[in-house]
Design goal:
Pfam families: AfsA (PF03756). GO terms for molecular function: transferase activity. Keywords: Plasmid. This is Putative gamma-butyrolactone biosynthesis protein of the AfsA family. InterPro entries: AfsA-like, AfsA_hotdog_dom. By secondary structure, the protein is an alpha+beta fold. It folds into two domains: about 150 residues, Hotdog Thioesterase (Thiol Ester Dehydrase, Chain A, Roll), CATH 3.10.129; about 150 residues, Thiol Ester Dehydrase, Chain A (Roll), CATH 3.10.129.10. Helices cover about 15% and strands about 35% of the residues. The protein contains three helices and twelve strands. It has a twelve-stranded antiparallel sheet with strand order 1-2-4-5-6-3-9-12-11-10-8-7. It starts with about 35 loop residues before the first strand and ends with a strand.
Length: about 325
């Protein structure tokens, strides 16, 4: 008789007892760290554990009792940074620049918040890697997310890493080309009512009406540099997390204003594609401009396409499917 041993699954050995050091995921607040463990499973393959809080000032601010799909985005973002430091030796003081991301929720119902904090396992493969002088300077990663044993979504993202001095020189050249004002821009715009963006707390609303003749197609991004989640630590540009949330909110608002969703819909982002083309400067206003809305082929959702602009410069392009 032949006895076979089941393949060992490293993911089953991951722990959820404490968070990883906040410096390894570039967070200032421990409460904003979701990752708890990580392990290598093969060449350029990893598993990462995260505990999803049942209550969070931003990600629990929803009109339903499911986890916000955007918390999956943040968990994968943190995973990419952790893996880069822990397994590839990218120096902790290097700057990280996210280029693009594509997110799809495959099982929205499985994001239901339970009686205990959610256990998220992220299976990661760095499919492409770029090196300079032996250092990893960029990667394209694919992430499979499993919540409490159920697959819930997929994420593909690309990012670059560089020494702080190189980043500072790049930013100085970019800012000089834009001829930015000397003082930060201060907006008088009033954020939209929370319900219009599927939120409850006005402190989490990051878009406002422009008061123009097209108030439903252009929104001003409300930049709160003191927001505990979207601006967890100070950077020399408007944070990518805040811009991502602005596209999410603008898409939900535009879709709810112009389309009738199926009764089963909860007005939640179920697919999200975003590309960062430039940095958004603190000294200039950011506007979120609707390009188009269209039903999906299946008819179960609506896709909204946006650009984020500062003057004539396109900062971000995004497509969000709301379902």
């Amino acid at each position: 008789m032949t006895v076979t041993t089941p393949p060992f699954d490293i993911a089953s050995e991951l722990t959820f007892d404490r968070t990883v050091p906040r410096s390894l995921v570039h967070r200032a607040a421990v409460s904003e760290v979701f990752l708890t463990d990580a392990a290598a499973t093969g060449e350029n393959r990893f598993v990462v554990a995260a505990q999803l809080p049942r209550g969070h000032a931003l990600y629990s601010d929803r009109l339903d009792d499911r986890y916000d799909p955007m918390i999956l985005v943040e968990a994968c973002r943190q995973a990419s940074i952790l893996i880069s430091h822990q397994f590839y030796g990218v120096p902790k003081d290097w700057a990280f620049v996210f280029r693009k991301a594509s997110v799809s929720v495959t099982d929205l119902a499985a994001l239901q918040v339970g009686e205990t904090p959610g256990r998220l396992v992220i299976r990661v493969e760095f499919e492409k890697r770029f090196h300079v002088e032996g250092y990893l300077t960029g990667a394209v990663g694919r992430y499979q997310t499993v919540l409490d044993g159920v697959p819930v979504g997929e994420f593909v993202g690309s990012l670059s890493f560089m020494p702080k001095q190189m980043f500072a020189e790049m930013r100085a050249a970019g800012r000089a080309a834009k001829n930015t004002p000397d003082q930060p821009y201060t907006s008088a715009a009033v954020p939209l009512p929370p319900a219009r963006v599927a939120r409850r707390d006005s402190k989490n609303v990051v878009i406002a009406s422009t008061g123009t003749e097209h108030p439903d197609t252009t929104y001003e991004v409300v930049v709160d540099n003191n927001h505990p989640s979207l601006s967890d630590h100070k950077v020399d540009h408007v944070s990518g997390m805040l811009l991502t949330e602005a596209c999410r909110q603008a898409s939900v608002c535009a879709v709810l204003d112009t389309h009738s969703l199926p009764e089963s819909s909860v007005g939640s982002p179920v697919r999200y594609d975003i590309q960062f083309l430039d940095f958004a400067e603190h000294e200039l206003p950011v506007y979120c401009r609707l390009i188009d809305t269209a039903p999906t082929e299946s008819g179960t959702g609506i896709v909204a396409s946006f650009e984020l602009v500062q003057g004539d410069v396109v900062i971000v392009r995004s497509q969000v499917e709301v379902g």
